[in-house]
Design a protein that fits this description.
two-stranded antiparallel sheet
Length: 175
């Protein structure tokens, strides 16, 4: 466990975070579920909140009300993830619109499947990650389990795939 400046958490800070998690994780999960998210997605968001809490241990320890701070972080995490999903959806629609009149084997196609749309733009793995996460509603935990990787690695791969797709689409706009 590391802080924002890259130092490992000492045992007192680890105990503090652990106690904070045990006393607040259910509440945060319920809050996320009441915002309309499935239990699995809510748990992903709670995990993100505590990753942030570990990195910002000094801030949270100085708070008069750490629970209120965690709820605020949860709202920010949810907002960020919703913005990311909306952005990815807009980018996928934009790419689909750009390709809707694409010529395939000498014939213009009205509708192309995602594999055809993204062929060569991003890798098969990146496409599978983005489709599962943004279109099919898989959680990061579910994708990680399916791929046999840990949760953090999965989240990082999704982020990198989204950023790669964004760069590709921005470059295609400039052409």
């Amino acid at each position: 466990m590391m802080t924002s400046n890259g130092e490992p958490l000492n045992s007192a800070d680890q105990a503090f975070i652990q106690e904070l998690y045990y006393s607040n994780s259910k509440l945060l999960s319920i809050c996320a579920q009441r915002m309309g998210f499935r239990a699995e997605v809510a748990e992903d968001y709670v995990q993100e909140v505590f990753l942030i809490a570990m990195k910002r241990i000094d801030v949270i320890k100085s708070c008069k009300n750490p629970q209120a701070y965690l709820i605020k972080v949860l709202k920010n995490v949810v907002g960020y993830n919703l913005r990311c999903a909306q952005y990815a959806s807009r980018m996928m629609k934009k790419l689909k619109d750009q390709s809707s009149n694409a010529q395939v084997n000498g014939v213009y196609q009205e509708e192309l499947d995602l594999k055809t749309l993204y062929h060569g733009a991003i890798s098969e793995e990146e496409l599978r990650l983005l489709v599962r996460f943004y279109l099919e509603g898989w959680t990061s935990k579910e994708i990680a389990a399916d791929m046999g990787i840990n949760f953090e690695a999965c989240k990082k791969r999704i982020l990198r795939a989204r950023e790669h797709l964004r760069r590709i689409l921005e470059e295609s706009d400039q052409d």
